[in-house]
Specification:
The chain is mainly α. The protein has 22 helices and 2 strands. Helix 3 runs parallel beside helix 6, helix 5 packs antiparallel against helix 6 and helix 15 runs parallel beside helix 19. The longest helix is centred in the N-terminal third of the chain and has 35 residues.
Length: 557
């Protein structure tokens, strides 16, 4: 299968530049990349030091027996096999999420053949992986080369690196195209892809929380030592001292790479041709009837409010259902529960603070979903909303109810079982559920005033190549800080242990940073927290009044 190298080069350059532009479009991404670069630098230097010691011990004969059957060569073979599997999984996911689709397909597929487009995309993807991984891998191997005094290892590194990377990317692209086709073209799966994506995310979180990656690594390490690509370990170590390697195994790895890339490219072209020229799944009349029936149930629950308010609620629910990708930010706080889930897995006991944290999370999430950017969520329809016969009270109450009607049952379902299965006394467990229900009603009131003050009307990239209108960073930060401050002071006002803990932390921090001793009495925190709690009770009501007036006075500039 002959490709046009000029087209491949141009497409690869265009795709790689587009990736760089996407990374630079967001200040947050630039800061995150800079931080990741610093972390990678530190880890790379540490890895280089450790591998230098390993190489020195190998050269001097002081390495001793490794806790791996087969010694150093078997260990490196397993590491190479794990690297290939990890790269394959990453390439598959990236293809499903992003690389399986192309920007402006009508133009690109008319200007170039599919085989050239596929080759260009895969070359650009390979360049991206090399840009990310070349430095840490070079540091690690360079440290080993320095310690072992084995320059031939460094000469073999580019061949090994590319030889492991290319089959993973080509096979991952094929598997990812199949997955993306099922998710976007096959109607039974496409209809439920939001739920499937959520389950996949929860499974991923479960692997992290439950130490699943360590278990998988341990289970796959030995079997992967016998895979063809693991022979690159022998190629890498051919020039190392005091190591018995197999040139035949190394040659088999090279042959495997060539065969997998050739066959994988032919298969990728066939899959891409089928996927790119097929029609996406469309919403059927049956699905619309099901969705309308679900909204009708919500309408019956809101029978006591007037029709304009019900219309606002219905629009908010419909908008969220049709663009669930904007809720991805609501999943991020779950990462802070990693230690609690690990504690549950390890001990079988639910921490007593977890029901309270879950209640806070549910209240925060429903406010984020329905009340933190009401003006921006209206988008092009905002002008029609402002000129419609609807009052500010109806508009604000509608968004608050949209969150409360969803949040109250969610609080019961999420917090209730955790609270009553935890060591909390029944009264405190019931209180945790009650506070979660109250929070699900009050937090949308608090959020809507903040969201009306700091609206965001433009869309931003939230995942891969998915754009959505989400709350502004200012609104999200202000609301989150206010909610956490109120919740923290409620804990201070109601729990003496929390006051004592905070006083101890403040006294210790002041004593550590300054030559003075603060001597903060925990009892002094009670009146302060009481004032903050009182302000927190008044804040949702003031926010409601402000939001109503803001809507009434809002004009499009």
């Amino acid at each position: 299968m002959v490709v046009d190298l000029r087209h491949v080069r141009r497409i690869a350059r265009m795709e790689f530049r587009r990736t760089l532009r996407k990374l630079g479009d967001s200040t947050v991404q630039v800061v995150a990349l800079a931080f990741a670069g610093l972390m990678f630098s530190g880890i790379s230097l540490l890895g280089a030091s450790l591998f230098a010691i390993l190489g020195r011990d190998l050269r001097t004969g002081d390495l001793g027996d490794l806790p791996i059957e087969g010694g150093l060569v078997a260990g490196v073979r397993g590491a190479v096999g794990l690297a290939a599997v990890g790269l394959l999984a990453l390439a598959t996911f990236r293809t499903i999420a992003q690389r399986g689709g192309i920007d402006e397909p009508e133009t690109l597929l008319l200007a170039a053949r599919v085989r050239d487009v596929v080759a260009g995309i895969l070359v650009a993807e390979s360049a991206s992986y090399i840009a990310w991984l070349a430095v840490p891998v070079s540091f690690a191997v360079g440290g080993f080369v320095y310690g072992a005094r084995a320059p031939l290892v460094l000469l073999a590194l580019p061949v090994v690196f590319v030889g492991v990377l290319l089959p993973a990317i080509w096979l991952g692209f094929c598997l990812g195209l199949v997955g993306r086709h099922l998710v976007t073209r096959y109607e039974p799966i496409a209809r439920n892809r939001t739920a499937i994506g959520l389950l996949a995310f929860l499974a991923y979180m479960g692997l992290i929380f439950g130490n699943g990656f360590a278990v998988l690594t341990e289970a796959l390490f030995e079997p992967l030592q016998s895979t063809p690509l693991s022979g690159y370990a022998d190629l890498l170590l051919l020039g190392a001292p005091n190591v018995d390697t197999s040139p035949l195994w190394a040659g088999g790895a090279l042959a495997t790479t060539v065969g997998v890339v050739l066959v994988g490219h032919a298969l990728a072209v066939r899959l891409a041709n089928y996927h790119w020229f097929s029609d996406p799944a469309t919403e059927t009349e049956h699905e619309r009837v099901e969705d309308d029936s679900g909204l009708a149930v919500g309408d019956r629950l809101l029978a006591l409010v007037d029709r304009p308010t019900r219309s606002v609620v219905r629009v908010a629910w419909t908008r969220t259902r049709r663009a669930p990708i904007k809720l991805i930010y609501a999943l991020y706080p779950l990462f802070f529960l990693i230690s609690d889930v690990q504690t549950i897995v390890r001990t079988g006991t639910i921490p007593t603070h977890l029901p309270w944290l879950l209640g806070l999370y549910v209240a925060w999430a429903v406010a984020l979903a329905f009340a933190l950017n009401p003006l921006g969520d209206d988008g092009p329809a905002l002008e029609a909303t402002l000129t419609a016969p609807i009052s500010g009270r109806q508009y604000v109450v509608g968004h608050v109810l949209a969150g409360a009607v969803v949040g109250i049952p969610a609080a019961v379902v999420v917090v209730g079982p955790v609270a009553f299965l935890s060591p909390l006394p029944p009264i405190e467990a019931a209180a945790a559920v009650g506070v979660a229900i109250l929070g699900s009603l009050l937090t949308p009131l608090l959020a809507i005033g903040v969201g009306m003050t700091f609206p965001r009307f433009g869309s931003v990239q939230v995942a891969a190549n998915k754009n959505a209108v989400v709350p502004s960073k200012t609104a999200l930060a202000a609301f989150s800080v206010a909610l956490v401050t109120i919740a923290g002071n409620v804990a201070l006002a109601t729990d003496a242990g929390t006051r004592q803990l905070l006083a101890g932390l403040v006294n210790g921090l002041v004593g550590f940073l300054t030559p003075w001793t603060l001597g903060l009495d925990p009892a002094w925190l009670l009146p302060v927290s009481g004032v903050v709690v009182a302000a927190g009770i008044a804040a949702p009501l003031l926010s409601y009044v402000y939001a109503v007036n803001r809507f009434e006075r809002f004009t499009l500039s």
